[in-house]
Amino acid sequence: MTCETDSFADDLTELASAEDFLDYFGIAYDARIVQVNRLHILQRYHDYLAAQEAGKPPQYAAYRAWLLRAYEDFVDSSAHQEKVFAVFRRAEGIAFVPLSSLTG
Known about the structure:
Layout: H1 3-14, H2 18-24, H3 31-52, H4 60-72, H5 79-82, H6 86-91
Helix pairs in contact: 3-4
């Protein structure tokens, strides 16, 4: 690893919130979108990084591109539509569970 890569990796450890990440990477964002979807954006970002950057040294441009993509996924969509978390994937298609099915 180079000093530049070490510094970048150190910088990443200091970031805590979606806003911290977006600010660090210089990505303009709508605070209302982030407020509602911050955990979903960070999880989607993590998923993108895990799938595309596994085993590679962290690179600013790649990490920034994946964060921008994760944020943009929620600009014209919703957490429910994007189904980032398992709870949304499991709930798909389940509209109603009658009480009588829970008692027996």
